[in-house]
């Protein structure tokens, strides 16, 4: 699993270079670094983040993931997320569609709710395998602590870039108010089902929430850059997280921030023979927050809306938006291509469906 024991990322596949943002400089309110963040968040909506302070905890979370995924399937299935649009818990490989034809996904993951971690040992939403509980204090809570700090600093910087009154975005993401925020540990075993390597193991999507903080060791994550019809890999760089903007921030910002489409395929080259792990923290707004542009709070956003045909007013709460997207990816809820369309977010273009 560690970078030293798996083959290097090949140099003959299409990759997309991301800007590297230094977290410590953002924290110190360095003007040039904040400009770099502005560029990344408004153009591709993806960037590398270095000096985030989570690296050692990420390794411990991957060890936890390994122990969880090695549990017998029937034990993991006791914690299955179900078909009602709930995200927290276990999802077996093949439980979701990756496209409108209903092709099955090939990743398994465990999602652990921020609310459940903060309220532990009292569950807010649900319980988890005992391996998670056993490492709650030593590993899960410390990782969440770093992730929440990173999110709070980045949300603060984006808040100011959008010309919002101080604390506006923070007030939409309050710890202790129920939300879809979660840690996600994903395993993709080497492809054995004869599917070609470029068949997505996790279908093309935009992220559902506000900001994502992603860690991976092997390649497989790809972005589709606007104006380009070739999917490009994001090459993992040791010690660097990948951050990206999700639908909620795109909508709050009236489209100023970009929520870009991405997917996961088999790792490239020799890496394809190895298990691929990824770990994410997904920050999402409080469930009751309505997803609409914050034009009444920022002249910058109001101005962006004037020049846009989209009014960014979904009339939907963050909780409902999130549940809908989860629910209609589930293969058990599939009636036809319309189910996949019902699971789409801001990336949805009828002509591309
Ligand atoms: O595994 C990855 O690298 C990306 C996962 C992802 O995009 C997601 O879970 O939303
Ligand atoms: Fe994603």
TrEMBL record:
Query: Pfam families recorded for this chain?
Result: 2OG-FeII_Oxy, DIOX_N
Q: Name one GO molecular function term.
A: metal ion binding
Which keywords describe this protein according to UniProt? Iron, Metal-binding, Oxidoreductase
Superkingdom assignment: Eukaryota
Check the record and name the Gene3D superfamilies matching this protein.
Answer: B-lactam Antibiotic, Isopenicillin N Synthase, Chain
Every copy of the Fe2OG dioxygenase domain together lies at 186-285
Q: What PROSITE patterns does this protein's entry cite? A: FE2OG_OXY
- UniProt xrefs under SUPFAM superfamilies: Clavaminate synthase-like
Coiled-coil ranges per the record?
A: none
Family statement: Belongs to the iron/ascorbate-dependent oxidoreductase family.
- For this entry, the protein name equals Clavaminate synthase-like protein
Supply the source organism for this entry: Sistotremastrum suecicum HHB10207 ss-3
